[in-house]
Each structure stands twice: as C-alpha cells, then as structure tokens.
Amino acid sequence: MDFGFSSDDEAFRADARAWLDAHPPDDTPRTWERTLGEAGWIGLGWTERHGNRQGTLTQQVVWAEEYARTTNTPPRLGHIGENLLAPTLITYGTGKQKNRFLPPIARGEELWCQGYSEPDAGSDLAAVRTTATRDATGAYRVTGQKIWTSHAHDADWCFVLARTEPGSRRHHGLSFLLVPMDQPGRIEVRPIRQMTGTSEFNEVFFDGARAEPDHVVGAEGDGWRVAMGLLDVERGVSTLVQQIGFEEELEKVLATARDIADPLLRDRLVRQWADLRVMRWNALRTLGAPDTAAPSVAKLLWGGWHQRLGELAMAVRGAEAAVGPYDWSPQQPYELDEQQRSFLFSRADTIYGGSDEIQRTIIAERVLGLPREARGQ
User: Which fold has domain 7-106?
Assistant: First the structure.
C-alpha cells in the first residue's frame, strides 16, 4: 500500500536524513533530547506553535520512520511529554498551562512520566485509589502509589490520575494533575528490576506531594474524560515507529532462519511477515481519522504479534536460545543477548498498556454495542 508521500514529503525526508547523519548522538539520552529540541524536531504534530517547527501528518510519519531507521539513535526519553501530555494540554489545557509546559517539552528540557497504573487496579483505570486533597493554600496533596511508571527515575514531572472527591467510585471524582517529581520526602521512586535485567519501569510513592491549584487539567472531577482523551492519542504516528522497530527485529530472525528446513517454522515466519504488513496497512488506514476502535485494535494486533515474534526467535535458534549466563558475576548476575531480552520482555506485551482482555471488552461494549459485562460491587 502506497501512503502517497508527496515531493514535499520526500524533500522533508532528505532534510531529516541529512540532519540525523550529521548529528550522531554521543551524549546522554537527556542531552540528546535537548539537541533534538534545539533543532526543532520535537512537537512536529502539535496544532499550536510553542517553539517547534510545524509538520504535516505525512511529515510526522517521515520523521518517525527516518528516526527509527537510524541505528545509533537512543530510545526517546521525551516521548511521554511530546506525544501524550502535549496533545492532551492542547485539547484540554488552559492557555497558562500551555504556555508553561509546552515550550520546555519542545526544547527537550523537561521530561514527563505517566501516573496511571496502580498495584490494585491493573488495567482497570477507573479503580485508582491515589487521592488528592486540598490544603490550606488551595494546593493539592497527592497520596498513593503508582506502578509500572516508565522513566519515572528520569522524569521532572508526572501527570497523575487521582481521586479528588472523597467516597467517589469508578470514573467519578477523578482529576488529572501535573505533579513535579523533585519533592524529596514527598515522592519516592523505586526501580523495578525485570527478568530482562533492566529496570525502566518504576514504583512511585506519593506522600502528600504538592500540585499547584492551577495544575489540574480540565475541571476538578473531570479527570476521566481527560485521561480517556490522552489514551485516544497514545497510538498514532508512534504505532508506525514501533512497527519499523518490529520489522528490524523480524529481519534479524529471518537472517538466522535462512537455512531452516522445518516447514512449520517456515510457515510461522511467513505468517509473521504477512501479519506485520497487515498491521502497517491498518495503522496507515486509521492514521488521523477518528475511530473509536482503532487504539484497542492496534494494541491487540501488535501485542500478540510481538509476543509471537519472541517465541519464534527462540524456536528458530533451538536449544542455543536457552544458553546462559555468559560472564557471570555478583554485580552482573546474567547477560542476555538482544533476542533473549526481547523474548522475555515481550511476555508482558499483552498486559501492559491495557491488557488484551480490557481491549476486547472496549471493542465489544463501546464499538459493537454488546451488553456490558456484569461487575461486582
């Protein structure tokens, strides 16, 4: 399927490619964010100017593709602020909030994390228990725990979904708060060591952390609407970027499998290749178009696909895939290669970001109009 890139888009691609080639990242990921910001590459899709260059939807795709294809660029630390919070502020934020928070994100100076998931809530976002009460100055005091918070150890700010109405239940009485992370004694971040050996996820504990009165996005008690609006923009151009990474992973598996004679494995490889093409076509088909089901369908597609790829990579390598550790030491108890890490990490693909069960329920109830599942009190 031809996405229909214009000559202007291809000229934009050449500029992006030339800039990336001329600016190999040799500093920390945080410094790299500032480099991207100074060059105007952050916030291409924003509908308002706040220190960033403007880019059409197709140019956003072009930039994302070229960035993903550059082998030495680090994963983006600013993704959450740029692609999740910024569009939410543009839609629901006040002028003061936009002027305060969008320019530092565009410059790559302030990093954000997302305070949604909780230990007892899982994928059920309406079950959050973190509370926010007003103190004598009118500020919010946030108390509770969030979990699986990506890059919380690097973040300057966290947008937190908290319960501001005592006694409220489910999606009622929630507010969307902007909370600074630099509050010693009020906020504690504990990295979660995963079976991959990495710890990009964190537990975050709030003990009366302060959020300013004017740092609630939307009205108090309107947090559910804002939170759902954020989830609607979570899977857009970034879905295409993710698929470029998937394509590179698949190519490495295919390279390992060139001499595989097993017809069942070869059939699985072909199926994996075809399914990736279907995902890309579906992402292009729904890009920029309002579609209630699109985010849930996309999550179901890529979560299962990536998990199957990890399993396939191990099957292609056979017994060698289970070999390890290599250079064992108490400081580095085990070392995994790229495919082993991907296989282990992918076990969570069908859980985080909204489990498969939650996505199917959303599609059934909100799109197909099927009867709602009975819920206990």
Answer: Butyryl-Coa Dehydrogenase, subunit A; domain 1 (1.10.540)
Which DSSP string do the residues of 295-346 spell out, in sequence order? HHHHHHHHHHHHHHHHHHHHHHHGGGGG---SS--SSS-----HHHHHHHHH
Question: Cα(307)–Cα(320) distance, rounded to whole angstroms?
Answer: 19
- Give start-end residues of each CATH 1.10.540.10 domain in the chain: 7-106
CATH class of the 112-221 domain in this structure:
mainly beta
Catalytic annotation on 335?
no
**CATH 1.20.140.10 boundaries in the chain:** 235-367
Closest by CA to 176, choosing from 85, 98, 306, 258, is 85
Q: Which residues contact 102 (CB under 8 A, 6 or more apart)?
A: 43, 46, 48, 50, 51, 86, 89, 90
Q: Where in the chain is the domain with CATH 2.40.110.10?
A: 112-221
The whole-chain average pLDDT of the chain stands at 84
Taking the C-alpha atoms of residue 235 and residue 299, their distance in angstroms, rounded to an integer, is 8
For every residue of 70-132, DSSP letters joined together read: -TTPPPPSSHIIIIIIHHHHHHH--HHHHHHHHHHHHTT---EEEE---TTTTT-GGG---EE
Each residue's pLDDT tens digit, 202-243: 899 999 999 999 999 988 888 888 888 777 665 556 677 778
Q: What is the pLDDT of residues 122-154, one digit of tens each?
A: 667 777 899 999 999 999 999 999 988 888 899
Taking the C-alpha atoms of residue 98 and residue 220, their distance in angstroms, rounded to an integer, is 18
Closest Cα to residue 352, out of 185, 200, 158? 200
252's tokens: 């490495």
**Which among 66, 110, 234, 249 is annotated as catalytic?**
234
CATH number listed for the domain at residues 235-367: 1.20.140.10
Contact at 8 Å (CB) between 356 and 304?
yes
Nearest to 200 by CA among 211, 189, 210: 189
DSSP state of 54: -
Distance between CA atoms of residues 174 and 116, nearest Å = 12
Chain centroid, CA 95 distance in Å: 26
- Element containing residue 38 per DSSP (H, E): helix 29-38
